[in-house]
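Structure tokens
________________
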Amino acid sequence: MTTLSTFLLDCRAAISAPFERVQSRFQRSARFVIVGGINTAVGLAAFPLLLWLHPAMRRHYVLALMTAQAACLCFAYVSYKVGVFRTRGRYLAEFFRFASFYLINYTLNWAALPLMVEVFHFEPILAQFGFTISVIVGSYFWHNRITFNSASEAHPRMGRVDQFEAESKRSERDD
């Protein structure tokens, strides 16, 4: 390859890189919304479905709730890992970080809901709706930056290395 054609390819890559990063982030965000919608539907259906399919669970509804939450947590983890962030390996570490977000969320929710209702006099449904919106936004950032951030294990101070950058560095080493 000639020097001019190499230079032109380098210029093209430098110009298109920011656009490819934006497109990649937009696609990830769109996948997050779609998978989040599916996870929400599964989460809303799991508990009543479990009670309906297994009549003994009606007497032990707390056990049914725990079972549904555990199943939905596993379903959500796999769907985000495979469908949104598309990471490989590190299942246990990622699952721990994923589950920790929801443990923190449950704890904050148990504290925030009474505060919003009793102190600030919000209606409970509106208070929970507002909290849920903050959880949705927070979960994207948590899962993007903490749960499925492959760069965080390789180097704790680095952010996510997008696919284009990683491929560029790989091709530079191969040359």
